[in-house]
Please model this.
Amino acid sequence: MKRLVAIALGALVFVGAAQAQQFFRIGTGGTAGTYYPVGGMIANAVSQPGKIVVTAQSSNGSMANVNGIAGGALESGFSQADVATWAQKGTGVFEGKPNVPGLRLIANLYPESVHIVVRKGLGVKTPADLKGKRVALDEPGSGTLINARMILAAYGLKESDIKPDYIKPNQAGDKLKDGSLDAFFFTGGAPAGAIAELATAGGGIELVPIDGPQADALRKSSPFFAPDVIPADTYKGVAAVKTLAVGAQWVTSDKADAATVYEITKALFSDSTQKILAAGHAKGKLITKENAVKGAGIPFHPGAEKYYREVGLLK
Model:
Protein backbone atom coordinates (compact mmCIF):
# COMPACT_ATOMS: atom_id res chain seq x y z
CA MET A 1 0.00 0.00 0.00
CA LYS A 2 2.80 2.41 0.96
CA ARG A 3 4.51 1.64 -2.35
CA LEU A 4 1.31 2.49 -4.28
CA VAL A 5 0.97 5.78 -2.39
CA ALA A 6 4.60 6.61 -3.14
CA ILE A 7 4.09 5.87 -6.85
CA ALA A 8 0.93 8.00 -6.89
CA LEU A 9 2.70 10.89 -5.15
CA GLY A 10 5.64 10.59 -7.57
CA ALA A 11 3.23 10.75 -10.48
CA LEU A 12 1.61 13.88 -9.05
CA VAL A 13 5.00 15.56 -8.66
CA PHE A 14 5.84 14.63 -12.27
CA VAL A 15 2.52 16.05 -13.55
CA GLY A 16 3.08 19.23 -11.53
CA ALA A 17 6.55 19.66 -13.04
CA ALA A 18 5.20 19.06 -16.54
CA GLN A 19 2.48 21.65 -16.00
CA ALA A 20 5.02 24.17 -14.73
CA GLN A 21 7.17 23.72 -17.83
CA GLN A 22 6.38 26.27 -20.55
CA PHE A 23 6.80 25.43 -24.25
CA PHE A 24 7.63 28.35 -26.54
CA ARG A 25 7.95 27.81 -30.29
CA ILE A 26 9.83 30.14 -32.67
CA GLY A 27 8.74 30.11 -36.32
CA THR A 28 11.89 30.77 -38.38
CA GLY A 29 12.22 30.36 -42.17
CA GLY A 30 13.53 27.98 -44.80
CA THR A 31 16.52 25.82 -43.86
CA ALA A 32 18.77 27.59 -46.42
CA GLY A 33 18.20 31.08 -44.99
CA THR A 34 19.43 32.93 -41.88
CA TYR A 35 16.32 32.74 -39.65
CA TYR A 36 16.61 28.95 -39.30
CA PRO A 37 20.19 28.67 -37.93
CA VAL A 38 19.86 31.83 -35.80
CA GLY A 39 16.51 30.59 -34.40
CA GLY A 40 18.05 27.24 -33.50
CA MET A 41 20.94 28.92 -31.67
CA ILE A 42 18.60 31.22 -29.74
CA ALA A 43 16.22 28.38 -28.82
CA ASN A 44 19.03 26.22 -27.44
CA ALA A 45 20.66 29.11 -25.58
CA VAL A 46 17.55 30.53 -23.84
CA SER A 47 15.83 27.25 -22.93
CA GLN A 48 15.73 26.54 -19.21
CA PRO A 49 15.20 22.76 -18.75
CA GLY A 50 12.26 22.00 -16.48
CA LYS A 51 11.05 25.59 -16.74
CA ILE A 52 10.95 26.92 -20.31
CA VAL A 53 11.57 24.79 -23.41
CA VAL A 54 12.11 26.95 -26.50
CA THR A 55 12.11 25.23 -29.90
CA ALA A 56 12.77 26.59 -33.40
CA GLN A 57 10.88 25.27 -36.40
CA SER A 58 11.24 25.95 -40.13
CA SER A 59 8.47 27.86 -41.90
CA ASN A 60 7.74 29.89 -45.03
CA GLY A 61 9.04 33.04 -43.31
CA SER A 62 7.72 36.38 -42.05
CA MET A 63 4.11 36.33 -43.23
CA ALA A 64 3.68 32.66 -42.31
CA ASN A 65 5.09 33.32 -38.82
CA VAL A 66 2.86 36.34 -38.18
CA ASN A 67 -0.18 34.35 -39.30
CA GLY A 68 0.93 31.38 -37.19
CA ILE A 69 1.11 33.61 -34.11
CA ALA A 70 -2.30 35.12 -34.89
CA GLY A 71 -3.84 31.64 -35.24
CA GLY A 72 -2.18 30.20 -32.13
CA ALA A 73 -0.01 27.69 -34.05
CA LEU A 74 3.15 29.47 -32.82
CA GLU A 75 4.02 31.31 -29.61
CA SER A 76 6.51 33.49 -31.47
CA GLY A 77 8.37 33.90 -34.75
CA PHE A 78 10.88 35.92 -36.71
CA SER A 79 9.60 38.60 -39.05
CA GLN A 80 10.96 41.40 -41.14
CA ALA A 81 10.25 44.76 -39.51
CA ASP A 82 8.12 45.87 -42.46
CA VAL A 83 5.85 42.81 -42.31
CA ALA A 84 5.50 43.05 -38.51
CA THR A 85 4.56 46.74 -38.69
CA TRP A 86 2.02 46.20 -41.50
CA ALA A 87 0.49 43.22 -39.66
CA GLN A 88 0.06 45.09 -36.37
CA LYS A 89 -1.20 48.34 -37.90
CA GLY A 90 -3.26 46.87 -40.76
CA THR A 91 -1.29 48.75 -43.42
CA GLY A 92 0.82 47.71 -46.45
CA VAL A 93 0.07 44.14 -47.53
CA PHE A 94 -2.43 43.85 -44.63
CA GLU A 95 -4.52 46.82 -45.79
CA GLY A 96 -8.15 45.72 -46.16
CA LYS A 97 -7.31 42.25 -44.77
CA PRO A 98 -7.57 40.82 -41.23
CA ASN A 99 -4.58 42.23 -39.36
CA VAL A 100 -2.87 41.23 -36.09
CA PRO A 101 -3.32 44.11 -33.62
CA GLY A 102 -2.04 41.90 -30.78
CA LEU A 103 1.41 41.42 -32.35
CA ARG A 104 4.16 42.44 -29.93
CA LEU A 105 7.95 42.80 -30.13
CA ILE A 106 10.42 40.75 -28.10
CA ALA A 107 13.58 42.10 -29.77
CA ASN A 108 14.93 43.66 -32.92
CA LEU A 109 17.71 41.23 -33.88
CA TYR A 110 19.89 42.25 -36.86
CA PRO A 111 19.67 43.89 -40.31
CA GLU A 112 18.52 41.66 -43.19
CA SER A 113 20.14 42.48 -46.52
CA VAL A 114 18.20 42.24 -49.77
CA HIS A 115 20.22 40.01 -52.12
CA ILE A 116 19.64 39.81 -55.87
CA VAL A 117 21.78 36.85 -56.92
CA VAL A 118 22.56 36.36 -60.61
CA ARG A 119 24.66 33.96 -62.65
CA LYS A 120 28.15 35.34 -63.24
CA GLY A 121 28.48 37.04 -66.62
CA LEU A 122 24.72 37.49 -67.12
CA GLY A 123 25.20 41.25 -67.66
CA VAL A 124 22.62 42.34 -65.07
CA LYS A 125 23.92 45.59 -63.55
CA THR A 126 20.67 46.97 -62.07
CA PRO A 127 17.28 45.44 -61.09
CA ALA A 128 15.81 46.98 -64.28
CA ASP A 129 18.03 44.58 -66.29
CA LEU A 130 16.01 41.62 -64.94
CA LYS A 131 13.37 42.31 -67.61
CA GLY A 132 12.66 39.13 -69.55
CA LYS A 133 14.82 37.03 -67.20
CA ARG A 134 13.87 33.90 -65.23
CA VAL A 135 13.75 35.17 -61.63
CA ALA A 136 12.81 33.38 -58.39
CA LEU A 137 10.99 35.63 -55.90
CA ASP A 138 10.66 33.15 -52.96
CA GLU A 139 7.48 31.45 -51.75
CA PRO A 140 4.16 33.06 -50.80
CA GLY A 141 4.30 33.84 -47.08
CA SER A 142 7.87 35.13 -47.22
CA GLY A 143 9.00 38.69 -46.64
CA THR A 144 11.39 38.27 -49.58
CA LEU A 145 8.48 38.00 -52.03
CA ILE A 146 7.01 41.27 -50.75
CA ASN A 147 10.39 43.05 -50.96
CA ALA A 148 11.08 41.65 -54.44
CA ARG A 149 7.78 43.03 -55.76
CA MET A 150 8.50 46.45 -54.23
CA ILE A 151 12.02 46.59 -55.68
CA LEU A 152 10.92 45.48 -59.16
CA ALA A 153 8.21 48.18 -59.10
CA ALA A 154 10.72 50.81 -57.96
CA TYR A 155 12.83 50.03 -61.05
CA GLY A 156 9.82 50.14 -63.39
CA LEU A 157 9.13 46.40 -63.70
CA LYS A 158 5.90 44.47 -63.23
CA GLU A 159 5.89 40.76 -62.39
CA SER A 160 4.71 40.10 -65.95
CA ASP A 161 7.94 41.73 -67.23
CA ILE A 162 9.96 38.81 -65.84
CA LYS A 163 9.50 35.03 -65.87
CA PRO A 164 8.77 34.56 -62.15
CA ASP A 165 9.32 31.42 -60.08
CA TYR A 166 8.08 31.08 -56.48
CA ILE A 167 10.64 28.84 -54.77
CA LYS A 168 12.97 28.96 -51.75
CA PRO A 169 16.63 30.10 -52.13
CA ASN A 170 18.12 26.59 -51.90
CA GLN A 171 15.89 25.38 -54.77
CA ALA A 172 16.66 28.60 -56.67
CA GLY A 173 20.38 27.96 -56.15
CA ASP A 174 20.06 24.48 -57.69
CA LYS A 175 18.20 25.89 -60.71
CA LEU A 176 20.75 28.69 -61.10
CA LYS A 177 23.52 26.07 -61.10
CA ASP A 178 21.87 23.91 -63.76
CA GLY A 179 21.08 26.93 -65.96
CA SER A 180 17.27 26.84 -65.67
CA LEU A 181 17.14 30.13 -63.69
CA ASP A 182 18.89 33.48 -64.19
CA ALA A 183 18.46 35.20 -60.82
CA PHE A 184 16.78 35.07 -57.42
CA PHE A 185 15.88 37.42 -54.59
CA PHE A 186 16.62 36.70 -50.94
CA THR A 187 16.13 38.96 -47.91
CA GLY A 188 18.16 37.73 -44.95
CA GLY A 189 21.28 38.16 -42.88
CA ALA A 190 24.52 37.87 -44.82
CA PRO A 191 26.15 35.41 -45.23
CA ALA A 192 23.26 33.10 -46.17
CA GLY A 193 24.21 29.43 -46.40
CA ALA A 194 22.57 28.72 -49.77
CA ILE A 195 24.28 31.72 -51.41
CA ALA A 196 27.67 30.96 -49.82
CA GLU A 197 27.50 27.40 -51.23
CA LEU A 198 26.54 28.73 -54.65
CA ALA A 199 29.47 31.16 -54.71
CA THR A 200 31.95 28.31 -54.30
CA ALA A 201 30.28 25.96 -56.80
CA GLY A 202 29.75 26.03 -60.55
CA GLY A 203 30.35 29.17 -62.57
CA GLY A 204 30.10 31.61 -59.65
CA ILE A 205 27.63 34.41 -58.88
CA GLU A 206 27.26 38.17 -58.81
CA LEU A 207 25.12 40.40 -56.58
CA VAL A 208 23.11 43.16 -58.23
CA PRO A 209 23.29 46.57 -56.49
CA ILE A 210 20.05 48.19 -55.29
CA ASP A 211 21.20 51.77 -55.46
CA GLY A 212 20.64 55.11 -57.17
CA PRO A 213 17.56 57.36 -57.37
CA GLN A 214 15.12 54.40 -57.53
CA ALA A 215 16.44 53.01 -54.23
CA ASP A 216 16.35 56.51 -52.68
CA ALA A 217 12.70 56.93 -53.73
CA LEU A 218 11.84 53.51 -52.31
CA ARG A 219 13.46 54.40 -48.98
CA LYS A 220 11.48 57.65 -48.89
CA SER A 221 8.15 55.89 -49.50
CA SER A 222 9.02 52.88 -47.27
CA PRO A 223 11.25 54.17 -44.45
CA PHE A 224 11.74 50.70 -42.92
CA PHE A 225 14.31 50.16 -45.71
CA ALA A 226 17.81 51.26 -44.68
CA PRO A 227 20.91 51.68 -46.88
CA ASP A 228 23.21 48.68 -46.53
CA VAL A 229 26.44 47.23 -47.93
CA ILE A 230 27.28 43.55 -48.28
CA PRO A 231 31.10 43.63 -47.84
CA ALA A 232 33.51 42.18 -50.39
CA ASP A 233 34.14 38.43 -50.04
CA THR A 234 31.11 37.90 -47.80
CA TYR A 235 30.54 35.43 -50.63
CA LYS A 236 33.64 34.00 -52.35
CA GLY A 237 34.81 36.15 -55.23
CA VAL A 238 31.93 38.65 -54.95
CA ALA A 239 32.75 42.37 -54.72
CA ALA A 240 31.16 44.72 -52.18
CA VAL A 241 27.65 45.74 -53.20
CA LYS A 242 25.28 48.52 -52.10
CA THR A 243 21.80 47.30 -51.25
CA LEU A 244 18.89 47.84 -48.85
CA ALA A 245 18.14 46.16 -45.53
CA VAL A 246 15.20 45.68 -43.15
CA GLY A 247 15.35 44.70 -39.48
CA ALA A 248 14.85 41.06 -38.48
CA GLN A 249 12.57 41.00 -35.43
CA TRP A 250 11.44 38.40 -32.91
CA VAL A 251 7.70 38.88 -32.37
CA THR A 252 5.00 37.27 -30.24
CA SER A 253 1.38 37.77 -29.20
CA ASP A 254 0.06 40.04 -26.45
CA LYS A 255 -1.49 36.81 -25.08
CA ALA A 256 1.96 35.26 -24.37
CA ASP A 257 2.71 34.89 -20.66
CA ALA A 258 4.57 37.99 -19.41
CA ALA A 259 6.78 36.08 -16.94
CA THR A 260 7.85 33.63 -19.68
CA VAL A 261 8.67 36.39 -22.16
CA TYR A 262 10.61 38.27 -19.45
CA GLU A 263 12.71 35.18 -18.65
CA ILE A 264 13.38 34.49 -22.35
CA THR A 265 14.38 38.13 -23.02
CA LYS A 266 16.66 38.18 -19.99
CA ALA A 267 18.26 34.86 -21.07
CA LEU A 268 18.78 36.18 -24.63
CA PHE A 269 21.07 38.92 -23.34
CA SER A 270 22.88 36.90 -20.66
CA ASP A 271 26.68 36.70 -21.02
CA SER A 272 26.55 32.99 -21.89
CA THR A 273 23.96 33.44 -24.66
CA GLN A 274 25.79 36.45 -26.07
CA LYS A 275 29.00 34.38 -26.38
CA ILE A 276 27.11 31.54 -28.12
CA LEU A 277 25.47 33.94 -30.60
CA ALA A 278 28.70 35.83 -31.37
CA ALA A 279 30.57 32.58 -32.05
CA GLY A 280 27.75 30.81 -33.90
CA HIS A 281 26.81 33.11 -36.80
CA ALA A 282 28.04 36.33 -38.41
CA LYS A 283 24.74 38.04 -37.50
CA GLY A 284 24.89 36.76 -33.91
CA LYS A 285 27.35 39.53 -32.97
CA LEU A 286 24.63 42.09 -33.77
CA ILE A 287 22.00 40.56 -31.46
CA THR A 288 22.65 42.85 -28.50
CA LYS A 289 20.32 44.48 -25.99
CA GLU A 290 21.27 47.90 -27.39
CA ASN A 291 20.18 46.87 -30.92
CA ALA A 292 17.09 45.12 -29.54
CA VAL A 293 15.21 48.37 -28.94
CA LYS A 294 16.11 50.01 -32.29
CA GLY A 295 13.63 50.23 -35.16
CA ALA A 296 10.64 49.07 -33.13
CA GLY A 297 7.62 49.64 -35.36
CA ILE A 298 5.23 47.83 -32.99
CA PRO A 299 4.76 47.87 -29.19
CA PHE A 300 7.01 45.73 -27.00
CA HIS A 301 5.51 42.76 -25.18
CA PRO A 302 5.15 43.68 -21.47
CA GLY A 303 7.57 40.90 -20.47
CA ALA A 304 10.28 42.19 -22.82
CA GLU A 305 9.52 45.81 -21.89
CA LYS A 306 10.05 44.99 -18.20
CA TYR A 307 13.55 43.69 -18.95
CA TYR A 308 14.51 46.70 -21.13
CA ARG A 309 13.30 49.07 -18.42
CA GLU A 310 15.36 47.22 -15.80
CA VAL A 311 18.54 47.61 -17.84
CA GLY A 312 17.81 51.27 -18.61
CA LEU A 313 17.15 50.96 -22.34
CA LEU A 314 13.53 52.09 -22.07
CA LYS A 315 12.19 54.78 -19.79
Observations:
- DSSP finds twelve helices and ten strands in the chain.
- Residues 128 and 155 are 5 Å apart (CA to CA).
